[in-house]
Amino acid sequence: MTGEPLLSVLDLVVRFDTPQGEVHAVNGVSLDVGAGETVGLVGESGSGKSVTSLAVMGLLPSPAGRVASGRILFDGKDVIGLPERDLRKLRGKDISMVFQDPMSSLNPVITIGEQVTEILRAHEQIGKADARTRAADLLRQVGIPNAEEQLDRFPHQFSGGMRQRVMIAMALALHPRLLIADEPTTALDVTIQAQVLELLVALTRDLGTALLLISHDLGIMARVAQRIAVMYAGFVMETASTTELFADPRHPYTVGLLNSVPAIDDRGKELRPIEGAPPDLEDAPVGCPFAPRCAWRVEACWTTMPPLQPVAGGRGGTGIDHAAACHNPVTAEEVRGAAPLRPGFVPAPPPSGATAAAASEEPL
Amino acid sequence: MMEEAAVSAAAAPPRAASGLRGVWAFVRASWLNALAVAIVSIVVLLALVGPLLLGSKANTADFADILRGPSSAHWMGTDNVGRDLFARVVAGARISLASAALIVLLAAPFGCALGILAGTIGGWVDEVLMRLTDLFFAFPAFVLAAAIAATLGPSLQHTIIAVAIVYWPWYARLARSQVLTLREREFVLAARVSGSSTLGIVARHMVRNVLPIVAIQMSADAGNAILSISALSFLGLGAQPPTPEWGTMMAGAQDYLQTAWWFLTFPGLTLTFTVLGFNLLGDGLRDWIDPRLRGVLRGGRV
Amino acid sequence: MSDGPLLEVRDLRVHFPITQGVLVRRTTGTVRAVDGVSIDIDKGETVGLVGESGSGKTTIGRAIVRLYKPTEGRIVFEGTDLASLNGSDAKKVTARLQMVFQDPYSSLDPRMSVGKCIDEPLKIHRTGTKAQRRARVEELLGTVGLPARMATRYPHELSGGQRQRVGLARALALRPSLVVADEAVSALDVSIQAQIINLLQRLQREFDLTYLFIAHDLAVVRHISDRIAVLYMGQVVESAPTDVLHDDPLHPYTIALLSAIPRPDPVLEARRKHIVLSGDPPSPAAPPPGCRFHTRCWLRQKLGNPERCETEAPALGSVGPEHAVACHFTDEVRSSAEREAVRVGGPHARE
Predict the structure, then answer these.
(1) C12 lies in a domain?
(2) Which helix (H) or strand (E) holds A117?
(3) Do A281 and B2 touch (CB under 8 A)?
(4) Where are the alpha helices (DSSP H) in C65-152?
(5) Which of A40, A310, C54, C272 is the most buried (most CB within 10 A)?
């Protein structure tokens, strides 16, 4: 990657204060997105991926949600702690976001045209008529037929796929440098999903916009992302170029995740799911949060969270570092299976009896 | 989904834990909750224990001691026939709480039953009920209660009935809307697939899911019921003298405001604090169970 | 036991009226959610029902378990026409037809303990004494891989995967022969999904269950099903054994579906051509004339928009053993490059 990354998240820690206690949503995430790059952030629920994106936009629900530590550098400047006024200038113009549910992101009582022109006129000095023309152009760009007429319609008159296109149009209206898309297609039908993904990829490519795509769907990542970061329980567990992540995963969680997805040629064979369940985010993480479910765990895993470090033998050919946060990464031969192939290897038991009880209590 | 839960957990407390632990957690959650519990506990205690301890002092006239101010002998002073005001106020607490309890226990089950019926059966039964409740809502609640009480004849019992009549449509609407939401929930569908009759679904699922929100409304209504009773009594439509009801006492104390401020003030203050306590309790419970209900339940109204 | 299929659905139609008006309800239209579907399910097999929203797949599942009444058509279960049953007979028969629901967060009564929840079907059918029922509840919990002490917990204390297991236990309580799994794993995380899929397969072997597996995720359906029926706008457009469907898909919609689903294989994804359907699905209240798919069909566009698609609805015709397709231009599909790109056995498949 040449030059400074456009977005640099450094050791981000996000906490939520709730009546039940503190929720440790993000526990030290570091992530880079270069200009024009498409980076995928993949993880299941509770991984902290959405919270990370909200933090980048300065949209954490406050006062409950707060950045406890870390930095978020956009174009070299720290975004955390910026006054709302400055954040507003950034949003829409430099960083933009598309959410999962377009219906709740669009104002139901204002026409689409008004919403799009509002964005344009909030950041640029253009007249109403010009804004309207630009808005129609934008709608055409995202493939909405009869753009001029559609400007005067309301969100509920559009289908889900159309609304998401409108959201994308609005997000890209001012040619932002970075677009964050949080599960943009999850709520859509498969065939519509394909349309919207293609649109997203084409537009960001044409405009040179960097795309941070957040999803739980590995398939989407395979299709769209150039680089992927895998998150679990508020940590980044592994990052690599897309091809390398799928071909040569090193973190046991990534391996487990890939083995959980039904594959074409595995029909009839039992899936190899990861036993157990994600940890409770109300507990402060001790050691690696994946340890209770990990077949590769060693003693150190229970006590210290390993840092994200480059993997041995990672093919740096693409110029992208392959890094994993693991004390005992998976070897190339073990990737196919769900367990280490080393003779005599037993996953290290938890350090104290109490933790063992917790780990085995509900392995589901 | 834990992530969304984390984001929304900031706004949504957990379901109340059961028993004493729950009460303690509730109290700890906010100083307003603590205040509410304190006030209500005091009032309930006074209502239960007070008349036992103070006995007949509430009704013992002593013409030698008319309109004496607060002193060590008479904490709240005496009224216009020399009765100890504190004793009367305490007796009034019992009357107010009992009346409120009766009102709520009359209005809620009746209203909920109709609401559940309308929501479950639908069709014209539902339409009829909706129009009926609309009719009740068209009148200002207090005016309607006053009219009913006046028609029935001034007495505490009649005011209780009148207020209960004004309150039931709220419960009907509340229960009905809950039922409509619940009807399409998957666990209700699952019950049907398991072979449950409609009655079975109502008994096994609807009632227990409607109960929490109704319970909250009931606790919020308790305070308003007390206020309603006192207001109607103040107007002469409720408890008649010499019954030591707060509103009745205040009506009788109007003439003496200049000369014996305590006569009007103490019952009034006690009424205020009691209603405040119950309202805070109602709000606190509502927020405790589900703050998204804010604005859905009826707040303070007479 | 009869030799015929366990479940026969014949020409099922489920229409919902659209009403307007407050005091006087007028019917202004009809949503034709299911519009002529016939499916056979044999004992012990798993039939997958695939489609997007508006396809009618959920409605079919619900009609089978009698949550909806069919507007037309027949559903015959174990030789008995379900419509002919009433009262206690209906209850006995339908006990053997159960359903697992999609949303683990609303498929369990939040105010009922897990044990009570599983006990409910037993109680409704008065199966045994209280003690016997309690034993059965514990047995069921064990079957789905949950510890017996879960019985006293409440749903909000359980994770999504655990709740789905409870839902399964509840469905199995009455020893059904057919279980309709309506998007039973769609709302779960990937790693939990895999656990539940394995569980479903294990239970099928252990209890000789028959599944109707309804989902929109073709990858999951493919993994678990013996046969698959692809639905579009209330009708079956293609049905075939699973391997055949992936090796020899013949309906343009099936091919588009296979193409649209992203596969976790970046090399494959980069290489293969993706078919992107144009436009939105039409409204189920106003299905297009002729072939319902014709407004979005890539093949029709490729062939220069032949009129036949618009005027004549293709019948579901047999093209091979147990393979049926509803399309006028099956031959053209066979020779198309688009089909080559999605065939599992084809050159673009992984490995």
Answers:
(1) no
(2) helix A112-123
(3) yes
(4) 87-94, 114-124, 130-143
(5) A40
CB contact under 8 A, B6 and A54: no
User: Residue A87: CB partners within 8 Å, gap ≥ 6?
Assistant: A57, A58, A79
Question: Is A65 in Cβ contact with B7 (below 8 Å)?
Answer: yes
Of A296, A294, A321, A326, nearest in space to A310 by CA: A321
Domains held by chain C: number: 1
Which of chain A's residues have a Cβ under 8 Å away from the Cβ of C277? 191, 194-195
Q: Is A18 in contact with B3 (Cβ distance < 8 A)? A: no
Provide the residue ranges of all domains of chain A, joining segments of one domain with +. 7-225, 249-361
Among residues C118, C162, C111, C109, the alpha carbon closest in space to that of C137 is found at: C118
Q: Is B16 within a domain?
A: no
Is the residue at B11 inside a domain? no
Residue C211 has pLDDT above 90, yes or no: yes
Task: Per residue of chain A (364 residues), give pLDDT as tens.
Answer: 456 889 999 999 999 988 777 889 999 899 999 999 999 999 988 899 999 999 998 888 877 888 889 999 998 888 888 888 888 888 878 899 998 887 778 888 999 999 989 888 888 888 889 999 999 999 988 888 888 888 999 988 888 888 899 999 989 888 899 999 999 988 888 888 888 898 999 988 999 999 999 999 999 999 999 999 999 999 999 999 999 999 889 999 999 998 888 876 666 677 888 888 888 888 888 889 998 888 888 888 888 899 888 887 655 545 568 899 998 888 877 877 777 877 777 788 877 654 444 444 444 4
State the CATH number of the domain containing residue B72.
Answer: 1.10.3720.10
Would C314 be classed as within a structural domain?
Answer: yes
Closest residue on chain C to B184 (Cα): C106
Asked, for residue B13, whether it belongs to a domain, the answer is: no
Give B110 to chain A, closest Cα distance, Å.
36
Calpha distance B298→C128 (Å, rounded): 46
The partner residue sitting opposite C265, judged by closest CB among A192, A246, A361, is: A246
In a domain, C275, yes or no: yes
- Enclosing domain of residue C341: 242-351
pTM of the predicted structure, to 2 decimals: 0.85
Contact predicate C205/C6, CB 8 Å:
no
Radius of gyration for the alpha carbons in chain A, expressed in angstroms and rounded: 22
Q: Could you read off the pLDDT of A109-152 as tens digits, one per residue?
A: 999 999 989 888 888 888 889 999 999 999 988 888 888 888 99
Instruction: Choose the closest CB to C216 out of A189, A273, A274.
Output: A189
Residues of C (317-336) whose Cβ lies below 8 Å from B: none
- Print the domain residue range for B159: 21-293
8 Å CB contact of B2 and A54: no
CA distance A234 to chain B (A): 10
For chain C, the first-to-last Cα distance in angstroms comes to 44
Is residue B259 a part of any domain in this protein? Answer: yes
Over its length of 302 residues, how does chain B's per-residue pLDDT go in tens digits? 333 333 333 333 344 455 677 777 778 778 888 899 999 999 999 888 887 877 677 777 777 777 878 887 788 888 888 888 888 888 889 999 999 999 999 999 999 999 999 999 888 889 999 999 999 999 898 899 999 989 998 889 999 999 999 999 999 999 999 999 998 899 999 999 998 888 999 999 999 899 888 988 898 899 999 999 999 999 989 888 888 899 998 998 888 888 888 888 889 999 999 999 999 988 888 887 765 555 555 544 43
Parallel, antiparallel or unpaired: strands A95-98 and A178-182 = parallel
Give chain B's domain count: 1
Cβ separation of B186 and C121 shorter than 8 Å? no
Superfamily assignment of A7-225 in CATH?
Answer: P-loop containing nucleotide triphosphate hydrolases (3.40.50.300)
Residues of B whose CB is below 8 A from C188 = none
Task: Round to whole Å and give the CA distance between A326 and A346.
Answer: 16
